[in-house]
Amino acid sequence: MYIILAASAFGDYATKMGNDIITSRSASSVSGNPTMLAWRGRRLLYTDEADSNSRINAGVIKDYTGGGIQRARLLFSNAIKGFQPQWHLLGNFNKPPDLPGDDTGLQRRVRNVRFISTFDEAFIGKEDTDLHFYAADPSVDKEMVRLGPTFMSVLLNTYQHDYTYTCPQTIIDDSKELMESSNHFATFAKMFLVKRDSQDDFFTIKKARERFRHGLLMHNTDLYHVIPKVPAEQEFRDNLPRILRAPIYPRKKIDGADVYSVVPGWRLRSVEEVLNDDPDA
């Protein structure tokens, strides 16, 4: 319902975009794209409840929110028009969408705002504020439309040029949790890697990749079949040190032997240790 309120408040400055747009590839600037031209000058782009099984296209999100010039043309027209985006993109999901959680560009952009309240007519006279259960109002859609101008007046009276916005810590934490749950490298690190005080403890990227392969086959774990195949070693080298905020040595002399792609200060847990964490495994 918040989208109805926001759309009513912004009026012609708000418009709805199709869910398929954020789950598909970017449209070519030479292709007819009258829909994008309709977004020119808009301040709010929003979606309806998208299919939670769809995977969000990170490239499209970054393209539409990066501030770069957007180019498109009308159907049957040769004139390509460009404009500067002025919108905020608001996605609406019943369940957390499937995101490429290891994309740092997306991590900077995505903010996960959870709506924890449940509204149902069954709660009439039985509301529970502790559990966030509230009675549903069947006429709330019309009420949101009616309150749109009032909401905009509140925004205009509140927002000043010297106003600074600080994102609530709850939203920051929820956004981090959403991205980490979509990042199979972060999931792997949480399951299999333990921080150690001694730099004598270490693991190699090769061993980590082998352990990851085992993790994909482990039932009742967050890593089970999270992706169809094991990523290449280079992806492990690019992602694990960054997630752990640890150095990686291309080659290190250990016990007189050359060991490659070494990450010190962390211990790689065995499959048995991880399985013993879950009594149902």
TrEMBL record:
Domain of life: Eukaryota
InterPro entries cross-referenced by the UniProt entry: ORF904-like_C
This protein's UniProt keywords: Hydrolase
A single MF term (Gene Ontology): hydrolase activity
PANTHER family for the chain: ATP BINDING PROTEIN-RELATED, SF3 HELICASE DOMAIN-CONTAINING PROTEIN
Protein name: Uncharacterized protein
Species the sequence originates in: Coccomyxa viridis
